Amino acid sequence: MTEFLAVEGGTIAYDVVGEGPLVVLGHGLGDNREAFRFLVPILVDAGYRVVNADLRGHGESSTGWASYTRTDSAQDFLALLRHLGEPAIFIGHSFAGGVANIIAADAPELVRAIIEIDPGTRKPVMKFGDVNGRFVKGISLILLSMMFKSTGLWKSYQRHAYPGTSGPAFEAQLAKLESNLREPGRMTAAAKMAFASGADAGAKLPHVQCPALVVMGTLDPDFPSPAAEAQGIVAEMPAGVGSVALIEGAGHYPHTQMPQQVADVILAFLGKYADA
């Protein structure tokens, strides 16, 4: 059942399932909370209370917000955490991976640990020798789809970002996502997020004090070198805070493409750090 939280500027949609330590999920731009549809039941079965939220402008959350930066979304999630009334493990994908840094740095009393899945969490760092065709195609599809607010181009990016994934069920899910993105204001929200600098989130990396895990698909087309990006993010955190888990063969959405493998590394991390 969808619940709604009124925050400054609009409403955030979320649902709650399970019992146990609190886990809060945040998806990436141009998506909605259904991206975690495979991961949620695994976490619930493992003994967690899972809150899965739509970013502002996405899913069932309201549109028409004044701005769509990572800092803005961090304020939404902090309001949700305060409403829930207990510290949480925050799992953020892509855009919301950057949100994780901000909430961990700004409200450490509300965050027990963060997990960033293929995060867009700092200004791009590229070495010319790392640039490859997979990255060029991916970034071109992102830019074009957001410049023209094209759901068709965004579906093309999605197909590229799920290497090796195809078939009727996958196409049906893309059609469902497209239907949601065609609602007034949704592609505008995604586009504004796409062109919002990640510098605000990157600036918080040195101030993250809780345990942090970066999960990265090795074939993520958003980065010239996904492994190097993951290691670079951890290197900007205080020593000993962050760690990296690579999901071999996964693209930008490993939690949807290979949910059990992602759950295995998440649960191992939580068992070692957050549940002690």
Describe the overall structure.
There is one protein chain. This protein is of the alpha/beta class and 276 residues long. It has one domain: 3-Layer(aba) Sandwich (Rossmann fold). 42% of the residues lie in helices and 17% in strands. The chain has an 8-stranded mixed beta sheet with strand order 1-2-4-3-5-6-7-8, sandwiched between helices. Helix 9 links the parallel strand 7 and strand 8. The radius of gyration is 17 Å and the shape is globular.
Quick overview:
This protein is 42% helix and 17% strand.
CATH class: Alpha Beta
* Strand content range: 15-25%
Sheet with most strands: strand arrangement: 1-2-4-3-5-6-7-8
Would you identify the regions where 5 or more consecutive residues have pLDDT less than 50? none
Number of strands: 8
List the helices and strands and how they pair.
Blueprint: E1 3-7, E2 10-17, E3 22-26, H1 39-45, E4 49-53, H2 70-84, E5 88-93, H3 95-106, E6 111-117, H4 133-147, H5 151-161, H6 168-181, H7 186-194, H8 199-202, E7 212-217, H9 226-235, E8 242-247, H10 254-257, H11 259-274
Parallel strand pairs: 3-4, 3-5, 5-6, 6-7, 7-8
Antiparallel strand pairs: 1-2, 2-4
Helix pairs in contact: 2-3, 4-5, 4-7, 5-6
Q: What descriptive keywords fit this protein?
A:
alpha/beta; single chain; globular; 11 helices; 276 residues; Rossmann fold; 8 strands
